[in-house]
Every structure is written in structure tokens, then in C-alpha cells.
Amino acid sequence: MPEQQNIEYKQSWHDDYLKWVCGFANAIGGIIYIGRNDAGKVVHLSDYARLLEDIPNKIRNAMGIICDVQLHDEEGKKYISINVNPYSVAVSLRGRYYYRSGSTKMELTGVELNEFLLKKAGKTWDDVIEEGATVKDIDKQVLQSL
């Protein structure tokens, strides 16, 4: 099965893959397989015992979320799955927000980030109060044209 919206394959673990975990948590969730190549074929993890302990702790410490991390065996070759549930609140990794779209992970910035955070909070742009605005900021010509 190829990589897709909710499946990612990695041959080995790198802490940079926490970005993928964050992206799945902010989207529809998904599974990251560690110890499988891009085609999904098992390549075996020699350090699986350490990773089974390290990965859940790294995820919890970096993002404050819990993921199911499980060991699998296919014909004597070990690999790990990280099952990431979707979260109803925005999840950040070191103050940055990632999102999974298709088979890619992207960092949300600017307008995309604003829209994402508003949506996760259950709001739209017109719900947001501009603290510094006064009645003088209203354009009378625009109001008259309505």
C-alpha cells in the first residue's frame, strides 16, 4: 500500500518525524510505520526495544499527546507502528503547527495558521474582537453603501 493521507513509511526513526506526528494529530490522524521503506516493505529495526520506550516519551514531552506505539513482527523482521489520533484542539511542536495533507507534511504559517487555529477553536474571523478598534475606525462610506 503506498503512502497516503493517513499512512507514512520511514525506514528508521529520527526526532524530526515528530513533525509528522503533529501533522497527523492536526489533520485526520494516521499511522507512521518505522522500519518500512517507501514501498511499505519491512526493512527491520535493530533498535526497536529502545524506540518502543523513547518514541512515546518524546511525543508526550514535545506535544503533550499520547499515541499508541506498537511492535510488529513480519517474517522475523521487526517494525513499529505509531497510531496518531486526530485532536479537536490544535497541537504544536515547539510552537510550530504542522498539518498532513495528501502524503505530505506542511508547516502552517500566516493566514493558513490563523484560519486553522480559529477553526480548531470553533470560531470564524468575524468572532474575533480587535482590542484596539474604536467606533472611529468604522468607514462611514462603506456603511452607507450597504
**H and E order:** EHEHEEEEHH
Number of domains: 1
Shape: elongated
Using the 3D structure, state the CATH architecture: 2-Layer Sandwich
Mean of pLDDT: 92
Strand content: 15-25%
Give the beta-strand count: 6
What does the largest sheet look like? 4 strands, mixed
Q: How many helical elements?
A: 4
- Spatially, the strands of the biggest sheet line up as 1-2-4-3
Helical residue percent? 25-40%
Which stretches of 5+ consecutive residues score pLDDT under 50?
Answer: none
CATH topology: Methyltransferase, Cobalt-precorrin-4 Transmethylase, Domain 2
CATH domain class:
Alpha Beta
SSE-based structural type? alpha+beta
CATH superfamily, please?
Schlafen, AAA domain
What is the end-to-end distance?
55 Å
Structure description:
It is built from 4 helices and 6 strands. It has helices at residues 18-26, 48-63, 110-120, 140-145; strands spanning 7-10, 30-34, 68-74, 77-84, 97-101, 104-108. It starts with 6 loop residues before the first strand and ends with a helix. The protein has 146 residues and is α+β, with helices and mostly antiparallel strands. It has one domain: Schlafen, AAA domain (Methyltransferase, Cobalt-precorrin-4 Transmethylase, Domain 2), CATH 3.30.950.30. The mean pLDDT is 92.
Summarize the structure.
This protein has 146 residues and is of the alpha+beta class.
Output the keywords.
single chain; 146 residues; alpha+beta; Methyltransferase, Cobalt-precorrin-4 Transmethylase, Domain 2; 4-stranded mixed sheet; two-stranded antiparallel sheet; 4 helices; 6 strands
